[in-house]
Amino acid sequence: MKTMTCKQLAGACGKEFHAETFEEMAEMSKKHAMEMAEMGDRAHIEKMEEMKNLMNKPEAVKEWFEKVQKEFDVLPEDK
Prior knowledge:
Elements: E1 2-5, E2 16-19, H1 22-38, H2 42-54, H3 58-74
Helix pairs in contact: 1-2
């Protein structure tokens, strides 16, 4: 199990997510962002807009994904 924060995953806050795989981590982050946006949290809405704009550039998305995947891979296991 590893831990990353919302900010480490291109989000807006320090909420921690704990997961075995990067895919699980990304899914938790996405769900959290959607929940925060539904509550009207401006910081999360702005970060979601940034990611939405990034999605229009496939190469940039690939680079971002690979960068964050590598960050996840080198994280120590939770104790």
